[in-house]
Amino acid sequence: METDRDHAHNERDLVLLQPVIATRRPFYYLALFFLGFTSIAFFAWLWQLKQGLGVTGLNVPVYWGFYITNFVFFIGISHAGTLISAILRLCHAEWRRSITRAAEVITVLVLFFGVGSVIMDLGRPERALNVLLHPNFHSPLLWDVCSITVYLTASTIYLYLPLIPDIAILRDHGAKPAWLYRRLAIGWCASEKQKRVLNRAISVMAVLVIPIAVSVHTVVSWVFAMTVQPMWHSSIFGPYFVVGAIFSGIASLLIVMALIRRIYLLQDYLKPIHFNNLGLLLLVMALLWFYFTFAEFITTFYGSDPSHLVVFYSKLSGRYAVPFWTMVVTCFIIPVGILARRKTRTITGCVIASISVNIGMWLERFTIVVPTLSQPRLPWAKASYSPTWVEVAITIGFGATFMFLYMLFTKFFPIVSIWEVQEGREMAIPEVVERVKSYFPGEVLPSA
Fold it and tell me: What is the pTM of this model?
């Protein structure tokens, strides 16, 4: 039964509807800013369509550059949502309730830009249909298509299911467009039967998306590892890519949370404890990332395969030393230095560490893709790669378009789950007390 205090809290939670109901002027200014970069990227793409891939820095044998780097990077960021959200939900981490939707939206939106990066690399978009018209099941490229399609479908369902009660709240408050919320709410009236069915469906999807998410970035790694290219043909690439994906995903979530907190004045919902907990997770992933990176490079060095060592030394002290050592600094030294100390693991510290991590993880993908291709195993002339304005414009445009679409989502749906926050306030404390009691031996008697 809802008490007066619970009712007051629930009324206060309606502040989460304000970004949907009322749009402030800065929203339009920021949207125009992002759309400006989107327009430049669209013009660059039209120029590439007209002139061909010759306007890029791609060449033979460096046929992958910024575009495939972006592909791996965006697919990695997608792990911010379903994987992190699902694990926290299954572990009954009650502090997750304010952050799950912000994470899940990242997953669904960013997958489109991962796929778009591949289309950019093809030069002619219609070539993407060849994977479906002439499938080769021995090709890791087809495995990629299948796994990403399944991942996008599961992630969309996992995002939509927890949205249903909040869509019904928007419907009942007369938010516009009324027809959209009425249809998407699918008759939700918060009955006990509906709640049981919804919670069961969310739990099932939470279990399903974890292996799907892990498989996606494993398959992405196999696009490289299934070849015999130097420093690609490695069994460590699967778990290495998954760890890197979670690493960059947590960092992206922290940045988005800080922006939401500041722009929509949600300090009461996205608290320092949320940033502290995710900061600790980011610290753990930084240490795991360093472990995998060290294991990969020490194995390559000890093996002393000449073709591998050429690529190895091009990263450590050659042409690609600057991006490589910048990657080490931004992925390990800076985040560990900030996050290992409670004093600096503040909201600002977590954001600085997260920005550093995302820069480093993009450089990591770049130093995986380009150095190997520029030092081919076959007797081919060594090549260099320098991106052109077309690739840079499209890369920046993808990032700006993602931010615009994320903003657009917050205009139509609450970015913090209202019903989950209310449910946590009403039910989570007794559940946590009972769960803690179950950890200890013997019967725990209630206090007098």
Answer: 0.90
